[in-house]
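Please complete every field before forwarding. Incomplete forms are returned to the sender.

SECTION A: IDENTIFIERS
Entry label: holo-323
Bound molecule: MTE
Molecule representation: SMILES string

SECTION B: INPUTS
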Amino acid sequence: MLIKIRKSWELSENAVLDEGKYLNRRQILKGLGIGGLIAASPSILSNSVAATSDDPSAHLYPVARNTAYEGGRPLTPEKIATTYNNFYEFGSHKEISKAAQALKIRPWSVLIDGEVEQEQQIDIDDLLSRMPLEERIYRHRCVEAWSMVVPYSGFALKELVKLAKPTSKARYLIMQTFEDKEVATGQRQFWYPWPYTEGLSMEEAAHDLAFIATGLYGKPIPKQNGAPLRLAVPWKYGFKHAKSLVRFTFSEKRPVSFWQKLNENEYGFWANVNPEVRHPRWSQATERDLATNERIPTQFYNGYAEEVAGLYTEIGKKEPLFK
Ligand SMILES: Nc1nc2c(c(=O)[nH]1)N[C@H]1C(S)=C(S)[C@@H](COP(=O)(O)O)O[C@H]1N2
Ligand SMILES: [Mo]
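SECTION C: PREDICTED COMPLEX
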């Protein structure tokens, strides 16, 4: 019998958030006796990872690790974390790493506007030279019930807040991804509410755990992971972690984020990880760890409850935090 080994992109988890399809395919592969091989050899799954050596910030890395932030589980292999991505600008599936190489990350600048003392446009390399860079190992939990443990380099979001000098009117920080239909073919799909937008309360943005990742595995962050800068708020579901940011707007009003606009019942503003609140279409009680491919129990606030639960004691009485 001839066994056709599927190409990596045929193994993709369907990004319309349908975890079930992937499991079925895995079961089929297991039946063929090649499931284990694929799980053990990430190279088989890879679509080639782009070199980052042409990135002008390469000399900044690696940066010193802040050991206050440890993963608590094995690190996800770099190859998996850089070839299994969600980045709808480049396609609504997981194998966008090649397509994302079309993104031009220089020149790049971020606009800081809204409720601030003074609007600023800052060049990325200028920003990187002004921020205290450090490495942190974070757990990342996607709402689709898979997770990874990755070493991000970057800086605390509160440092950017300090630089921005928000006025007393600012209650939310809104973050936006670049818009360019030429390179991001996903943005030609007009039914999505581009640009990708996310937001945090000012209290969340000022929290020690809220991080801007500019590096990954001791190198500049690859394009597919959100170069040159993306949000990392590990107690929240992955969709909050907006990539390739170009704008930080301080606002009196709470924004409506990308996924909220698409489906308010499934993706809320707070999106704090909670194993007890089901996604309308699947349970959130467990997650598939990409490092081991094992199902593990999901923890409240993705295991960061001690750090962040205090943020929600007041709000929690008024509105659902886990949507
Ligand atoms: N601009 C943008 N940011 C995004 C997304 C996206 O589609 N577009 N997907 C989000 C989702 S659902 C997840 S799980 C993470 C995935 O990050 P990673 O590919 O670096 O693991 O990015 C988030 N940030
Ligand atoms: Mo996600």
